[in-house]
Amino acid sequence: MALTPDDVVTKQFQHVRFKEGFDPDEVDDFLDEIVVEWRKTIAENEELKAKLAALESGETPAAAAPVVEETVEEVVVETPAPAPAAATDGTSATAGIIELAQRLHDEHVAEGKAQRDQLISDAKAQAASIVAEAEAKGRDEIARLEKERAVLEGRITELRQFERDYRSQLRDLIEGKLRELDSSSSPSGSTPVSAIGL
Hints:
The protein is 81% helix and 0% strand.
């Protein structure tokens, strides 16, 4: 059975499960390129056949006719030979396509691994930067809180000193007033009120 470009276009492949395979879109794109080139080759072949038929019909000078005959004989003789060669070329072309697809697959996998490694190293660098920044902010905050604590402890010491001074002054004032009361009291003032008869 002769293979046509339409056979390539309409060919459906089964998806393989649980195994790695080729990307169907990538295979389809590549097969589309093959079909375009194949159609060009077929058109070129048809054009050459038309030219050959025109030459055989006698549109060339008589002197050139024997050369054309030899060429035609060569074409006729060689035409059967390329058929098996075409099958071999098809097999080698298929092997070449598979090799190319495998190489592209390997390149994409290597590129993916390189991107993965780059992303991981970038993430680690970013994480280290964030941790360093957080540690610096933590140290700054601790230093600020230590300063604030020192200020508050100083204020507490001042307030305690103020309390001691205030208590001391209040005690001195009360004791002074009591002494004044004792010294200003008269001898009649020392008699109890109940004794006066109130």
